[in-house]
Amino acid sequence: MAVRKSFVEKVGRLKREMGMFDVSFYRNKKVLVTGHTGFKGTWLCRILVNAGAIVTGYALDPPTNPNLFELARLRDRMDSVIGDIRDFGYLKETFERVQPEIVLHLAAQPIVRDSYKDPRYTYETNVMGTVNIMECVRLFPCVKSVLNVTTDKVYYNNEWCWGYREDEALDGFD
Question: What 3-state class would DSSP assign to 140?
Fold first, then answer.
């Protein structure tokens, strides 16, 4: 019982110290989430929808059936656009229609092993896809904030058991 109480106290302290879980900022904000059909994107959209945000997702079809996006029952609670971030024209059309205030960019080819097998696709998606997102952000003054989510693989791997911070040394091998 003491362990459970200690955990609950720690979570409560984190909430207070970091303002975690206060998602009221997003209420009625137009948010575009790329990669919304992936694991992290689905959970992010679930949080945003529950917070009252007007959410549009832009991603490839989920890779499995069943998949988390369908299991989370988000299709009827948000605007789900199936598209490829490498397709600048369609991405730009989506920005034009949605007029997002906030862009949360999670779309990527994240599997290191797959990047070795098909480096061109990975580069086109992760680099040029991000260029397309940033170009749309530049073209649409409705966007007030953008967050580009990337991988810890850009950091030098110290084999630490904790996560990396933005001020850690770069030069990852993958």
Answer: coil
Dihedral over Cα of 157, 159, 165, 167: its sign: negative
Phi and psi at 160, nearest 5°, equal -75, 160
Is cis: bond before 66, omega within 30 of 0? Answer: yes
Give the pLDDT confidence score for residue 41 in this predicted structure. Answer: 95
Output the DSSP codes for 33-100. EETTTSHHHHHHHHHHHHTT-EEEEEEPPPSSSS-HHHHTT-TTTSEEEE--TT-HHHHHHHHHHH--
**Mean pLDDT of each 10-residue bin along the chain, 174 residues long:** 60 60 89 96 95 97 91 94 98 98 95 91 95 98 95 77 80 68
Structure tokens that stand for 139 in this block:
């073209």
Position 150 scores a pLDDT of: 82
pLDDT of residue 112: 84
What is the spatial order of strands in the sheet that 54-59 belongs to?
79-82, 54-59, 30-34, 102-105, 145-148
Question: Is the CB of residue 55 less than 8 Å from the CB of residue 49?
Answer: yes
Determine whether 162 is exposed, middle or buried from the number of CB atoms within 10 Å of its CB (0-12, 13-18, 19+). exposed
Assess contact for 54 and 27: CB atoms under 8 A.
no
